[in-house]
Amino acid sequence: MEQYSQHFLYPSTLFASKEPYVVKTILGSCVAICLWDPVAKIGGINHYMLPNWNGNDLASPKYGNIAIDKLLEKMGQLGARRENLKAKIFGGGELIESGANGTLIGERNIRVARLILEEKKIPVIASSTGGKKGRKILFFTDSGEVRHKFLDKKAQ
Amino acid sequence: MTNITDRQLLKEIRAKMNERKKYEQEVQMLTRELQDVTKKLRESESLKSHFISNISNEIVNPFTSILGLSKSILSVEKNDWKKVVSMVALIHSEAFNLDFQLRNIFVAAKIEAGEVVPNISKVNVRGIIQSIIDAFNLVARKMGIEIEFEWQIEYGFGKNFYFKTDSEKIKLILSNLLNNALKYSYKDSKVIIKVWADEEKLSFSVQDFGTGISDKNQKIIFERFKRLDTGINSINRGHGLGLSITKALLDVLGGEIDIKSQKGEGSTFIIHVPEAKNVVEGFSGEGNDIFFDDGDEIF
Q1: More confident residue, B223 or A139
Q2: Nearest in space to A130 (alpha carbons), one of A107, A146, A113
Q3: B299 vs A54, A88, A150: nearest CB
Q4: Is the CB of B244 less than 8 angstroms away from the CB of A58?
Q5: pLDDT one-digit tens code per residue, B96-123
Q6: ipTM of this complex
Q7: Does B61 fall in a domain?
Q8: CATH classification for the domain delimited by A5-151, as one of 3.30.1330.200, 1.10.357.140, 3.10.20.30, 3.60.9.10
Q9: Chain B touched by A59 (CB under 8 Å)
């Protein structure tokens, strides 16, 4: 096995690399989108908490629409080509029982991912979303492989 | 022969229509959302250009003062130390301000780039708070404002109270609150910093006796680049990032902020920060601790 460097991905941050990295993150209602360019072997991943930027806070990758744009931008800088990119989507569980009105953060986070990726014509080739459990994922930036496990405990 | 009764047919058509309506509603909702986002983006663009003109004042003014003052020091008559000292004090406060503002801008840029992560260690809380107060004291004295420090933590070894958190982020949060408190205070008043803690969280408050913030404005002040133009001590200074940064940093620490304020009576900002866990579960960030579980599914 190739030597991988490691990175732990915190919420509201993103990561992309040309070097082979294995990125770990823990997801609850947050969503992580793994993008990678199989030709250039460049991979990147974000971890956002809310679907759309409210226009008031700092425009950080805490918000889905910003997190996706910034990840694409960063990967473009590293040399990934938009037309080669493939995507995998994880997370978006509903861990907190929401009331009758239901905030459904997880669901909305997933929807933003699918909408924006479709708009950008990036194919989603695998996903594990929704449900009531948290997830742990490991993402290999060179091969695009994702190892995924449900968590029983509460996650972020 | 189809044996669908009129009734059944009607029912089916109705169901189809309902379904369609639902789709239409969804499309409408999405369109509205999209329009909303576009509007916000446009607003943000105009705020950004406003911000750049603000920020250039922020940087150019202190530099002009520093340049001018240091030049005049060179031509001060020999032995007129009093004059030199007062000019150096001015240079210091301008440079301090410049440094503080630049730091804020870089942190904001880092937050927006998604590069800000918690950096946890055992922190001597009293030490870092005292260091921030010391740093601001010179500037405060020049404004005639006294900074009072009320330490309300009894246990531990009395003086030193250690708490697992991110010291740089706490420092920046406190600096921003203190900077605001000074900016909106009247001359010859005071600012009170209180620190207390319970089992799992650290709290501190920064209270001023300045202009206060109306209910309506209490919502606005957290928005990036927005400032209230009622600062007493430095009219039209500031970039409107301070509280946005504070909020984003609190996000990273899992903390909260509260405001108590009444127009004309001053404001109190209260921060609560939970104690950080040792390390991220299953990851120390250095060793070979990214392991594969048997239960891993591969995607």
Answers
A1: A139
A2: A107
A3: A88
A4: yes
A5: 888 888 888 889 889 988 888 888 888 8
A6: 0.79
A7: no
A8: 3.30.1330.200
A9: yes
